[in-house]
Predict the 3D structure of the following.
Amino acid sequence: MPMERSVSSRALALLAVAGLLGPTQARAADPIKIGVIAEAQSVVGASIPQAVQLAADEINAKGGIDGRQIQVVTYDDKSSASDAVRAFQRAVSEDKVNFVIASYISEVVLALMPWAARLKTPMITPGAASNEISVAVHKDYARNKYTFHGYLTSHALAQAVCDSAKEVLVEKLKAKTAAIMSEDAAWTRPLDAAYQECLPKSGLKVVEHVRFSPDTGDFTPIYNKIEAAKPDLIVTGIAHVGVQPTVQWQNQQVPIAMTGISGQATSSTFWANTNGGTQGVLFDSVALPGVALTEKTIPFADAFTKRFGGAPSYAGYMAYDAVYYTAEAIKRAGSTEADKLVEALEKTDYVGTVGHLKFYGKDDPFTHSIQYGPGLMTSVLGQWQNGKQVAIWPAATANGAMILPPAVKPAVQ
Amino acid sequence: MIGLQILVDGFAISALYALGAMGFTLIFGVSGVLNLTHGALMVMAAVAAWAASALFGLGSYAGAAIGILCGLAGALVTYFAVVAPIERSKAIPREEKEIFVLTGTLLWGIMIQELVAYFFTDNPKTVLPLIEGVVEIAGVRTPKNELFTALICWVVIGLLWLFVNRARAGKVLLAASMNPRGVTLLGHDMAKIYVAVWAIYGLLAGIAGVLLGMFLGVSSYSVGPLTASAFSIVVLGGLGSVTGSLIAAYVVGYLETATAYLISPAYRVIPALLLLVAVMYLRPQGLLGRR
């Protein structure tokens, strides 16, 4: 640290001699530090530090934020809450980061929230979904205002699934009934509750509801139970699992179409991991390859793929946008001081890679989560077709039509 | 209907459990080693089979063969690089060697797990099944691959039984598991027997790993649960007893399947663990344990 300071001050002295910089700007050249806490070995988590680095390099190449360069410090938390808390403490007290971008696992983010409050350090999660995160901000705003839920809540995700199911599966496939199948985790409790509420409104009667442990290996009993209820659709809430239920759905030729949230299915490696077992699987995602949600989507996905050799996960898109809208907030605030930054972040109004991003306010029930709706951030319904993710809804951004999964017979009507 | 489903589904998973636990108990019977690398070796075999067929396009048969060879190689490396040096070491007191072997194999297993996660991420993978499609068994739609899994498991278990009970080399193994001193006195080299037993174990773990990858899929996260499940089956059946493990595997497999169907898939493993606790109280040597 002293080393850095002496080098930069010498450089600044030279610049000052050259008459390029005034003395007031010397302090402004301190870097802005972002702490990134995520699991490096998971496909979803690995994209987070990569996307943050990509955004930081782009901003730095254009001169940084008000002349200050961005520095990224990453920590691998192995998706463990205790590792994440230690990383957070270290990031704030030793590495002096200005804000933290953390995790896609709700349990981890919920464990970090009290620390963001205690250490008064703004934290943005680019991928955790549980309602509890933004509900906690709403309930104790004064303490928890440092946490930003930079992704859709489970409630909004369920709404997205219901909206897409209504237009595609109810209207075109004539589906009438659905079974909910979710892993037992923090993010799926509110998701299932919202499914129960919005599926009937979309014209789908819920005939079965199965929650299973995330370490389930054999899904045969689950599919048999669901099949016995004779639903037209399986609506999923899975992210910790994905490959196994998908492959077994295919191998057992379960004759029911599958849609919903499948975190792993959004990843580009899912076809190889399932040996093509994902053929015909429908899933909601924040973005899909080749689909221009805004003018920034494709340039980001291309730059990311070129640099890291694979497409970004959903959390990658959200993390990339998080760096940009926070950079704008720092400019607006004219400071990285926590309370000023929080205030500026709340005024976020930014067109990112996944849509028009705004946060819900203090009085909304899901304070500090990304606003969902047309013209804001929505979702894309994708389907795996012969090794590719095809966008089939909404119509404005669709690049293909839905096919029936191999074991599913044409609609009952 | 539900009874039949439990019967059909429980059969394959139990056979797979049996195959996985059999090698584990064999090693313990012959050399007294509790090999905590077990789950890691199975995962390594499955991921190697997956990588060979899905990433390098070698086809599912070549992939399966590579996976099994990987299991064999992994077991031999475990023996020569971890277990044998500890057993030979003069620096470690005799009575502490068991603990050192436990720790050594556990750490080696974690290393394998981390390497798999590092190179192939911790996302689960499934090995391309050798046989695809489904058949109806009395109204229960069953993947052919599930039947194939059960069949292979039973063929391998049968071969192992024949080897141990009929072949001369196998009888030596059996004798070694009963009385190592006696076998040494008869002029058999225990070192050679250990290598043979680890090689057999490696093949069994490799086959079980590849079949598991085809049937249910694995990820680096499976390492701990796989070791734990083999361990509890073996303890339930009686440490060192191959027949005991076989019976215990079926008890655990059917108990889990019945729980998943009749109560909830979320509580799948709980009754089996309760049974294990009960057995520990009432019959600490396990169902068919000799020690």
Summary: The radius of gyration of chain B is 19 Å. Residues 2-31 of chain B form the longest helix (30 residues).
